[in-house]
């Protein structure tokens, strides 16, 4: 059997086994080969990393195309064509239409590292979404050593790289250690990546539109709890520039820089402190971590002389530590107190909701730490 024919048989065997749920005997009958040959081909597929474990798709599973969503992306973001790859049960057919080679490739996709490889390797103008940000560890090499470095390693040949990696993260009310992490600080340390952290629907759309046309790889963190919130989206098209934070709430006594869902928590803290103590807190949402709008934070510190940086990621080596150090370097003379950072405790996130609450910053824990630290 020629190499090309054998390769084609392997792909068909994978499809019959993982998509159609056929047994090795049934596959052998369909392909007119021995069951031993089927077993050997399956072993080869596992050995070469095409598949690592069986996924039991329903027998009526089909690849479906979300034409309505594609149309919205094309209209809203000014694209000629948009390819969205998602590690879910529904995979857009647009990639399948590109070529027979891609059709073969998609018959063997079972892992997120392949989504990353396809995402930046097909056209370098793509959106890739991993179902949970935690799963990006499976395909981290593609981000750390490929996407972030390709502009430099190509000598600038890929100078307009519109690649967006969407990572939903954060706690989701008892989703456990493998589905609850905030990993922004890891990516913040990688040169070559921009990082967006929207805290509301308006910012999510505006930042995503900028990300798609930015010309540089963007890691787009979405907190899962924000999916349940609502916001006003104007009908008129708009975008939000990177590196431009926003003052969410004016205040004169203390500055809180909060990211993602922690902006909601900061708002609750500010409401209660104003009601109970008369303390007026200014809240800054940086919107993007790379680039970081250090000037808007510095201007607020000049006014309040106190800074608290609030994030959901682990406190040790976190986003708050980086922001705090940047402020300390440039605005130390304006501070009456050392900078306070608050993040999740340095522990795995428990699945039990009560224990989860003890790890993640919440309104009461933030107020308690803030009052003791700043003596307010």
Write a brief caption for the model:
With 376 residues, the protein is an alpha/beta fold.
How would you describe this structure in keywords?
single chain, 376 residues, alpha/beta, Rossmann fold, six-stranded mixed sheet, 15 helices, 11 strands, 41% helix, elongated
CATH fold-level name of the largest domain: Rossmann fold
Q: How widely separated are the two ends?
A: 79 Å
Q: Assess the beta-strand content as a share of residues.
A: 5-15%
Give the helix level as a range of percent: 40-55%
CATH class (first level) name of the largest domain: Alpha Beta
CATH architecture of the largest domain: 3-Layer(aba) Sandwich
Structural class: alpha/beta
What is the CATH homologous superfamily assignment of the largest domain?
Thiamin diphosphate (ThDP)-binding fold, Pyr/PP domains
Order of helices and strands: HHHHEHHEHHEHEHEEEHEEHEHEHH
Radius of gyration from CA coordinates: 24 Å
Unreliable stretches, pLDDT < 50, 5 or more residues?
51-65, 84-110
| Count of DSSP strands | 11
Please tell me what the overall shape is.
Answer: elongated
Widest beta sheet: strand line-up: 1-2-3-5-4-9
Task: Give an account of the 3D structure.
- The structure is a single chain.
- With 376 residues, this protein is an alpha/beta fold.
- The protein has three domains: 3-47; 67-228, Rossmann fold (3-Layer(aba) Sandwich), CATH 3.40.50; 246-374, Rossmann fold (3-Layer(aba) Sandwich), CATH 3.40.50.
- Helix content is 41%, strand content 14%.
- The chain contains 15 helices and eleven strands.
- It has helices spanning 3-19, 24-31, 35-47, 67-76, 100-107, 112-121, 140-147, 150-153, 184-188, 201-212, 262-277, 294-304, 319-331, 353-359, 363-374; strands at 84-86, 126-129, 163-169, 194-196, 218-223, 246-249, 254-258, 281-285, 288-290, 307-314, 340-344.
- A six-stranded mixed beta sheet has the order 1-2-3-5-4-9, with helices on both faces.
- Strand 7, helix 11 and strand 8 form a beta-alpha-beta unit.
- The radius of gyration is 24 Å and the shape is elongated.
């Amino acid at each position: 059997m020629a190499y090309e024919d054998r390769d084609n048989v392997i792909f068909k065997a994978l499809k019959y086994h993982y998509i159609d749920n056929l047994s090795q005997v049934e596959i052998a009958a369909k392909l007119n080969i021995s069951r031993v040959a089927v077993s050997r081909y399956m072993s080869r597929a596992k050995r070469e990393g095409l598949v690592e474990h069986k996924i039991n798709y329903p027998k009526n599973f089909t690849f479906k195309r979300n034409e309505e969503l594609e149309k919205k992306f094309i209209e809203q973001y000014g694209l000629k064509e948009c390819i969205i790859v998602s590690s879910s049960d529904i995979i857009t057919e647009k990639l399948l239409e590109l070529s027979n080679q891609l059709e073969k490739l998609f018959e063997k996709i079972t892992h997120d590292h392949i989504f990353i490889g396809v995402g930046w390797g097909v056209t370098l103008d793509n959106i890739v979404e991993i179902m949970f940000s935690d799963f990006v560890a499976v395909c981290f090499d593609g981000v750390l050593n490929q996407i972030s470095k390709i502009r430099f390693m190509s000598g600038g040949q890929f100078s307009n790289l519109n690649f967006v990696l969407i990572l939903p993260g954060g706690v989701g009310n008892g989703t456990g250690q493998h589905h609850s992490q905030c990993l922004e600080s890891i990516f913040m340390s990688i040169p070559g990546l921009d990082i967006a952290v929207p805290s509301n629907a308006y910012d999510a759309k505006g930042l995503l539109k900028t990300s798609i046309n930015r010309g540089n790889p963007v890691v787009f963190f979405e907190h899962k709890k924000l999916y349940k919130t609502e916001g006003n989206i104007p009908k008129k098209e708009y975008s939000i520039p990177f590196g431009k934070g926003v003052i969410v709430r004016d205040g004169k006594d203390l500055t809180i820089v909060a990211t993602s869902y922690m902006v909601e928590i900061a708002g609750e803290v500010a409401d209660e402190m104003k009601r109970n103590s008369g303390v007026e807190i200014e809240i800054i949402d940086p919107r993007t971590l790379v680039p970081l709008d250090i000037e808007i934070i510095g201007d607020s510190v000049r006014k309040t002389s106190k800074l608290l940086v609030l994030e959901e990621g682990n406190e040790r080596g976190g986003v708050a530590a980086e922001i705090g150090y940047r402020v300390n370097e440039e605005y130390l003379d304006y501070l009456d107190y050392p900078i306070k950072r608050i993040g999740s405790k340095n522990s795995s996130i428990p699945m039990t909701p009560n224990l989860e609450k003890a790890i993640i910053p919440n309104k009461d824990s933030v107020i308690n730490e803030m009052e003791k630290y700043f003596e307010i």
